[in-house]
Design a protein that fits this description.
The N terminus is likely disordered. The protein is globular, with a radius of gyration of 22 Å. 28% of the residues lie in helices and 36% in strands. The chain has a six-stranded mixed β-sheet with strand order 3-13-12-5-8-9. It is of the alpha+beta class. It folds into two domains: 172 residues, HUPs (Rossmann fold, 3-Layer(aba) Sandwich), CATH 3.40.50; 170 residues, Immunoglobulin-like (Sandwich), CATH 2.60.40. Helix 6 links the parallel strand 14 and strand 15.
């Protein structure tokens, strides 16, 4: 497979000023799906305002402007935006313009006016950028995917809060991020991100085929089961990392971009399917990371960036070719670059054998 999926079980973080969670971490889309609501609830350690942002998986979006030519409407100009959230909604306990300065709204992308929606070369297209950006937002609002009216975060007493997140019938599948911010005295003093998986019902059969098919390198299902059961037993959460190898196609840059986008979509689909497996095992939607680069280097980077990760779980190939290049590197030359223990799960373990050690 082009990207290698790694699992890292993270222990719960120390007590924070802000704690939040979703009533449901999985939204199942059936044939008669007409939209749904998901309740988010939480608590703070004292006074403050709460802002909640929900964003869907980002995708490249092309916006076209049509002009009338001899009585026929044709596409005259277009602009591509590299990363546009497929869904965006905002809720707050107090209007964000009253509690945060514009610079912080830009930094945390709070509100549609502060979303970073940019083409590949914004300087070269800055004259037309405002018009096309406004058209992108307008189109998404028309589809009900960029929520026009912000929701309200309600406090139940001084510390407990809740809000409802509404998703339309045409919401895209994938892993969503619900980000919660605690604001005091004009500053963001704490933040938390909670994943939400929106998936079409009936993917169980696909997951079974995926799990037992020939594409599963290095006994991935064994390591999924081990990490999920360990996270459930310890109260932690699994982190899934998919490292996509860089696309090197020097002759035509356009072809290279298409290939990169296809690989990214493939990676996102894989992570979505793996997330559902982990959710069934551990009872929690995992945190997902999708990166591009050298696999070994990206693993080391993530471990150094996220200090809440307490153990690295890897799968080892059971064939005569050895345990695999990543296991070989991290137990050899790269052993001194990471500061967490490594658990290596043999790829040929049965479910019963995995259960016996977890």
């Amino acid at each position: 497979m082009t990207g290698l999926v790694l699992l890292l079980a993270a222990t719960p973080a120390p007590a924070q000023p802000l704690v939040a969670d979703l009533a449901d971490h999985l939204v199942a889309i059936t044939a008669g799906f007409t939209g749904t609501e998901v309740v988010m609830f939480g608590a703070t350690d004292g006074p403050g305002e709460v802002v909640v942002v929900v964003s869907g998986p980002s995708r490249p979006v092309v916006v076209r402007r049509k002009s009338r030519f001899f009585g026929i409407w044709i596409n005259q100009q277009e602009m591509q935006f590299d990363e546009a959230p497929s869904f965006y909604a905002l809720a707050f306990s107090k209007p964000i313009d009253d509690i945060l300065q514009p610079a912080l709204l830009d930094r945390y992308q709070l509100g549609l006016d502060h979303l970073k929606l940019l083409p590949p070369n914004p300087e070269a297209q800055r004259d037309n950028l405002p018009e096309f950006r406004a058209a992108l937002v307008r189109n998404k609002q028309h589809e009900g995917l960029y929520v026009t009216e912000p929701g309200h975060v309600t406090f139940l007493g001084e510390r407990l809060f809740r809000t409802k997140l509404t998703f339309p019938a045409n919401v895209a599948t994938g892993t969503y991020q619900a980000q919660v911010y605690l604001v005091r005295d004009g500053q963001v003093v704490s933040a938390q991100t909670t994943p939400l998986l929106i998936s079409k019902i009936g993917v169980g059969a696909d997951i079974y085929d995926f799990a037992h098919g020939p594409s599963m390198a290095y006994g991935l299902i064994s390591v999924l089961r081990y990490a999920g059961r360990r996270a459930k037993a310890t109260g932690g959460r699994v982190v899934l990392l998919y490292v996509q190898e860089p696309v090197e196609f020097q002759h035509w840059s356009g072809v290279s971009e298409i290939m990169r986008d296809e690989k990214r979509q493939e990676a996102e689909a894989t992570l979505q399917r793996l997330s559902e497996i982990v959710n069934r095992i551990s009872g929690q939607i995992p945190v997902v990371q999708l990166r591009e680069g050298n696999r070994s280097e990206e693993v080391v980077k993530l471990l150094n960036e996220d200090t809440n990760i307490s153990i690295l779980v890897l799968a080892a190939a059971s064939g005569p070719e050895g345990p695999g290049p990543l296991v070989t590197y991290l137990t050899g030359k790269g052993a001194g670059k990471i500061k967490v223990p490594i658990t290596i799960v043999p790829g040929d373990l049965t479910d019963e054998q995995v259960d016996a050690v977890t």
